[in-house]
Every structure is written in structure tokens, then in C-alpha cells.
């Protein structure tokens, strides 16, 4: 049974997560030749203060981008 864990920033609407899960399940079930019910998808939503790119928190990067 494939298990897919998707880590994303907090704040994505449920409809977006539903669509991501639908597409991931479709791709994995097709490639693994398994029924969709055999594929599990879990979302871990993390705050931007807990996500780093290099040495910089994503919340800081977002603020920098907003200034430009």
C-alpha cells in the first residue's frame, strides 16, 4: 500500500488539497497498477516559521518578496 506524505505550508484551501490528493492518487495508482483505494495521502501543514530555505525562515522570505 503506497503512502504519500505531502508537507506544505499552512493556509492552502481544502479544495486545493483535495485536488492535489486526487492527482497524486491517480498517478500512483496508475503507475503502481493498484486501485485508488490502496493509495494513502496525508498532508502535514507547517507554519512558515517552522520552514527554512537554507538558513532563512519562509515567513521572512515572504516578507522580503512582498517588499519587492
Give the tags.
68 residues; alpha+beta; Macrophage Migration Inhibitory Factor; two-stranded antiparallel sheet; 2 helices; 4 strands; elongated
Map the helices and strands.
Layout: E1 3-9, H1 14-32, E2 40-46, E3 52-53, E4 56-57, H2 58-67
Structural overview:
The protein has 68 residues and is α+β, with helices and mostly antiparallel strands. It is built from two helices and four strands. It has helices at residues 14-32, 58-67, and strands spanning 3-9, 40-46, 52-53, 56-57. Strand 1, helix 1 (14-32) and strand 2 (40-46) form a beta-alpha-beta unit. It is elongated and about 45 Å long. The model has no long low-confidence stretch (mean pLDDT 97).
Shape designation? elongated
Beginning-to-end CA distance, first to last residue: 45 Å
Can you tell me the CATH class?
A: Alpha Beta
Question: What is the count of distinct domains?
Answer: 1
- The fraction of residues in strands falls at 25-35%
From N to C, what is the helix and strand string? EHEEEH
- What fold name stands as the CATH topology? Macrophage Migration Inhibitory Factor
Give me the CATH architecture, please: 2-Layer Sandwich
Please tally the helical runs, counting DSSP H or I stretches of 4 or more residues. 2
Radius of gyration: 16 Å
Largest sheet: 2 strands, parallel
CATH-defined superfamily: Macrophage Migration Inhibitory Factor
- The counted number of beta strands is 4
Structural class: alpha+beta
Low-confidence stretches: none
Helical residues, percent: 40-55%
- Residue-averaged pLDDT, rounded? 97
Kindly report the spatial arrangement of strands forming the biggest sheet: 1-2
Amino acid at each position: 500500500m503506497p503512502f504519500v506524505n505531502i508537507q506544505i505550508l499552512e493556509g492552502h484551501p481544502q479544495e486545493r488539497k483535495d485536488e492535489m490528493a486526487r492527482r497524486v492518487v491517480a498517478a500512483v495508482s496508475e503507475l503502481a497498477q493498484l486501485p485508488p483505494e490502496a493509495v494513502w495521502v496525508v498532508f502535514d501543514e507547517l507554519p512558515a516559521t517552522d520552514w527554512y530555505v537554507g538558513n532563512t525562515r519562509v515567513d521572512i522570505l515572504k516578507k522580503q518578496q512582498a517588499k519587492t
